[in-house]
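Review form for a predicted model. The reviewer records the input and the model, then writes brief findings.
Reviewer: anonymous (R2)
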Amino acid sequence: MPHLKCEACRVRVRRASDPAGLTDPCPLCGRPLESARDLSELVGFRWVDARPEAPHDAISPEGHQRLAAGVAEVMARRRAVERRSRPHPERWAP
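Model under review:
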């Protein structure tokens, strides 16, 4: 995976495809990114995600409902395990 950098902003970017012949702009300043020949060149640079952000409404309402149902199911299972693992004082009473 090619690593690109911007010396001016001290940021690094990873790119899935080969950057040969392509110059991506720095996500912060817009200058062309340079290819890093060695990973040691990137020490001290902070990583910046160059991909555009997905809009917050990219997940459908059905997706949110499925997620909420899954979380509720996990919580119910956890509560059931906790109930089973609690000590039963009546078992130990003389």
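Findings: The helical segments are 61-85, 89-92.
Further findings: The chain has a mean pLDDT of 80.
Recommendation: see findings above.
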